[in-house]
From TrEMBL:
Belongs to the NDUFAF7 family. Pfam families: Methyltransf_28. One of its GO terms (biological process) is methylation. Residues 215-234, 273-341 are annotated as: Disordered. This is Protein arginine methyltransferase NDUFAF7. It comes from Fusarium oxysporum f. sp. raphani. One of its GO terms (cellular component) is mitochondrion. Arginine methyltransferase involved in the assembly or stability of mitochondrial NADH:ubiquinone oxidoreductase complex (complex I).
Amino acid sequence: MLSRAVVVLLQLTRDRLRMFRSLGLKPLARLSSGRCVPQPNLFNPCVARSFSSTVRQYRNVTDIDELFKNENQEESERQWSTPLAKQLFAAISTTGPVPLASYMRMCLTGDIGGYYTGAIGEGRDQFGTKGDFVTSPEISQIFGELIGIWFIAEWISQGRPKEGVQLIEVGPGRGTLMDDMLRTIQRFPAMANSIDAVYMVEASRELRNAQKQLLCGPDAPSSESKSGFHSPSKYNGKQIVWTDTIKSIPNEADKMPFIIAHEFFDALPIHSFQSASAPPPQPKASSPTSPAQPPPENTKPAMEWREMMVSPTPPGVTHAQLGTPKSQQDEPPPEFQLTLSSTPTRHSRFLPETSTRYRKLKNMPNSVIEVCPDASIFATDFATRIGGSEQYRKTKPSGAALILDYGTSDTVPINSLRGIRHHKRVNPFSAPGLVDLSADVDFTAIAEVAMSASEGVEVHGPVNQGDFLELMGIRERAEQLTKAPGVDKETADKIDGAWKRLVDKGPDGMGKLYKALAILPENDGRRRPVGFGGDVSG
């Protein structure tokens, strides 16, 4: 049983400084590696990801049939930027334009040159100042420490179970966040001992290797089971299990799953739809006994959803023809573009009808919406693991999911697809497989799906990341680190600049753009979690 002193450490609203004393005073070595140093000439990926996408400017009204005219002669001579670009063209030439979600999936996780799963260059790294973008855990160790504290607070509030805790991360990157979390949790032995296993949902073999080296050490033994690959953690020997999908993780009635999804949902493929006038109804055929019925006059045309599809740009196309923004004209014209389907597709008939939020926009001409089916799949999985369902019965609802990402609080995302490469915003339809693709997260949709999937959960948020981290005590923890013995001014300045960047709500910060949402066991709203306006209880 935890001592009263430990509980006091977690009473963030009463005595934050005492809480952080248990985490240690030594800043991690990575703070002096330059990751937190402001780069005057470095494009801020947070700013890049905050801009509305201009992807619709890449639409070309060229008729699809005209697009492929003389393709055999012209395309055989075309030089493609990546092997994946050539493969995409071959597929589209066979089947016709593909949904935006299919394009994103192939670019991010395709076997041939996918951004995360098929690295072309040996030793290529997507993360950090030498990669394409920097994430919050890479900016400051405090971020991961506070996430660890958040789950400790939930563990206490839910009765301090002695066993049965599953720690799950989806999209773990290089493993930096989980490393900071485990180091923090290790300071609280009772919770550390309650963890049955740590599950890392990661499809990339290269990223799995990087995670294993960081979390287990380069010489740690490995084994394999039907759940995935196992290695003992360097902290307490608890098994870390790597799985391709979250479905491989046991969903058991007596387990308490603690799930973290940081910058995961933004990389899930999206479908994009636009409302358009449906063809007018055809007059009824005449018969010998009744004349043809003309269509009624002055009727408002019915609206339908059409899907935005990806097709190749014509050979030799110019930036002027595509309407490429000037900031992106230093690169070759993109090899692909968005086109609007001329008729409804199977996706446009179904996906926009899944929510009243989408249906309300249907009758507004040229309305654009983005829908992420994969986000619904993961939100459903999180909710049923925590709250149970008809299929997955639970002894009682338990656990928590914390989602941190960038996106909209109460509006449907539109035109948010963006590409990032070398810390610069680039055309999302250029260099497939070498560009990070992402889109705004629809937090309201995640909340709706989670509560529909399980009656045993409730949702808190989203709240701004800056507010969440301030309530968790980021300011006090940073002050503690900067004043620790042996910390020089240069290191202190890096620590100070790093945490402020995470909470800054200005255009160059991450405090407002990024948001936090929590899925918890249903409790009639009687308890707010820490970071969302509540305190530790239990």
